[in-house]
Amino acid sequence: MVDVGLRNPEPITEGTFDLSDILAHSTIKPSVPTRDEIDLQEEELIQGEAVVQECSNPPIFVTVSSPYEVEKARRDLPIIMMEQEIMEAIYENPVVILCGETGCGKTTQVPQFLYEAGFGTSNRLDRKGIIGITQPRRVAVLAAARRVSYELGLKLGKEVGFQVRHDKLVGSNCAIKFMTDGILLREIQTDSALKHYSVIILDEAHERSLNTDILIGMLTRVVNARKVET
Ligand SMILES: Nc1ncnc2c1ncn2[C@@H]1O[C@H](COP(=O)(O)OP(=O)(O)OP(=O)(O)O)[C@@H](O)[C@H]1O
């Protein structure tokens, strides 16, 4: 309903309705929207479309059944408080650098944040593909893969897999894959856009291992290649 603010309100009966009469007795005047108002309306419309697009993405359901003691221990890790900020940074940027004290949960928790958000399992284009995590040492690959599969209540060799030189346990529906940086370097040579992956995490990048340093250089090209494709 629009209140036209009639100075001398008289009931308008059927057949006598005339907009010019109403406006003549009205305190409000018709106004032509200014350029700024039109721009603002268009901007609101575009934002509205963005919301509609976001809502049209299918909902993502990821079932996780972690052991109780794991859930309890996770709550005390400093990184858990940062989950939302980390995930928003990942959604909004092609490259994110994560710094945190030793033991705060970078290696074990970030892959879980991603998995719980549907990376590795969802059919959404932007989250489709394995979560790949590299480590400079093979011992760390095995330990992290075992730990993350245990924390998520998943089976090692199925949803969570690993690959090091001469040893590989990766299932056909693998969602999280731990590997040495050397393994990923070899994969890039045959798949220059790393199509099978939705996210790549280079763990321990500050150690500046030769393979990780080369990977950082090559991944800058992968980021650009994937930008062109999308
Ligand atoms: N194999 C494991 N068994 C039991 N607890 C573990 C295991 N791996 C990690 N944790 C626990 O999870 C916590 C987080 O470890 P995580 O390796 O994710 O930390 P981080 O931030 O990556 O450390 P760093 O910088 O040293 O790599 C640790 O404090 C440790 O208590």
From TrEMBL:
One of its GO terms (molecular function) is ATP binding. GO terms for cellular component: nucleolus. It catalyses: ATP + H2O = ADP + phosphate + H(+). InterPro entries: DEAD/DEAH_box_helicase_dom, DNA/RNA_helicase_DEAH_CS, Helicase_ATP-bd, P-loop_NTPase. Residues 87-230 form the Helicase ATP-binding domain. GO terms for biological process: maturation of SSU-rRNA from tricistronic rRNA transcript (SSU-rRNA, 5.8S rRNA, LSU-rRNA). Its EC number is 3.6.4.13. This is RNA helicase.
